[in-house]
Specification:
The chain is of the alpha+beta class. The protein is built from 2 helices and 5 strands, in the order βααββββ. It has one domain.
């Protein structure tokens, strides 16, 4: 399935600490999460093991929200959370 990453999503990705590659990976292999407004949500936890804004984090969770339009995925936005998650890797 074709994945179209909206420019807004790429801007947020850069600000929040993820990449286009990770966004596509989350859409393809992530687990389902709750989404509002008829959107679809997927998330994936990655090992991070480095500092961000001066604080060390073991993992990051990337959440992607998107719609299906004419048979293709169109991203809406991406969120990135830093911390530690047990069962979702």
């Amino acid at each position: 399935m074709e994945i179209q990453i909206d420019p807004h999503t790429l801007e947020r990705a850069e600000e929040r600490g993820t990449t286009e590659k990770e966004i596509k990976e989350v859409i393809k292999t992530g687990f389902d999460i709750h989404a509002k407004y008829g959107r679809i949500g997927k998330a994936k936890v990655y090992n991070f093991e480095q500092k961000r804004h001066g604080k060390y984090y073991e993992q990051k969770r990337v959440e992607v929200f998107y719609t299906l339009e004419e048979g293709k995925v169109v991203t809406v936005t991406v969120y990135v959370f830093y911390g530690k998650w047990e069962a979702q890797i």
